Amino acid sequence: MAPYQCPNCSRLLHFEARVCPSCAFTLGYDPAADAFLFLGDNATTWRDAQGEAHDVVVCANNNEYEICNWLVSTTDSTPFCRACRYNSTIPDLSGPQVPERWGKIEAAKRRLIQEIIALRLPCETMIEAAENGTFGLAFDFLYDPVGEESGNIQITTGHEAGLITLNVMEADDAKREAMRNRLGEPYRTLLGHFRHEIGHYYWARLVQNDPEQLAACRAVFGDDTMSYDEAREKHYGGAGGGWTTDYVSAYATMHPWEDFAETFAHLLHIKDALATIGGFGMRLMNWPGEDVQPSIDFDPYTADTLTLVNEWRPFAFAENAINRAMGQPDLYPFHISEAITAKLDFVNRLLMGARLS
């Protein structure tokens, strides 16, 4: 996402900011305005950079748990912000380190929801969907005490019928890194999980019940009627087909559903990373063999796929070079082939067709 400024002093902020590190004013993000507001007038009125008052209050999850920095309109029918209102179940906060982990989960989820808003995609809560007959989204964040103690995980992260479940152990950096190494994955993050699982949600919403889209999707990703359980057993049993450059990740080779969700996640990675780069006005000045040096002079959330991929490749290379200079692994440890570009293009066109007016 593009960087945000403190509405009082213009200091650049991280999206998780709650207090400006420069002027010390209390801050809150207003998704309706897509901007941070500051609490002025003796801490009673939220104002924007022009000094205009907004009729908003802090999210209920901030009042009760100090877990959210988003604001909600006083006229909304729910006390929860645009991100927190999707929660169906929050974790048992009496578990060790669970409150801290839940905070990390909510921070990652807010970035996901902000990007869904930027993409202008339909995304109703379960309550909203029941009222208007659409396909709703909800989240269950669950504590797994047995998995915590024994390592035998009882709660699997996944999606089913609009409900995304996440084991809060994923927010433990050491445990997530151990799992990444055990599964041989080059990349595993909370935000990556969310982008992957919401890819399943949009497949169910935009593809599954549309015969034309379903046929087109199968032509690109393969026949999804193949047994998922058998495919999963083969993949984790080592009898899968193996990773080729036709797939953006090894996990994508397991089943067409996972290929779609992994591709969906990578498209969101690329769009949001390019929006961030463009928001800072960054460009590459010494990229060889280019008459026009790479820069983000377009809206990544609406751009065509070739524009996205062509601009992303040099910036991804530069980001990886910077990480290596710091002794860190590649920030984007993936390769985008022509086959992957075609898959990204299918998802990108699907999302552009679903944009709300």
TrEMBL record:
<dbReference type="Pfam" id="PF15887">
    <property type="entry name" value="Peptidase_Mx"/>
</dbReference>
<dbReference type="InterPro" id="IPR031321">
    <property type="entry name" value="UCP012641"/>
</dbReference>
<dbReference type="Pfam" id="PF10005">
    <property type="entry name" value="Zn_ribbon_DZR_6"/>
</dbReference>
<protein>
    <recommendedName>
        <fullName>Zinc-ribbon domain-containing protein</fullName>
    </recommendedName>
</protein>
<dbReference type="InterPro" id="IPR011201">
    <property type="entry name" value="Zinc-ribbon_6_bact"/>
</dbReference>
<feature type="domain" description="Zinc-ribbon">
    <location>
        <begin position="4"/>
        <end position="94"/>
    </location>
</feature>
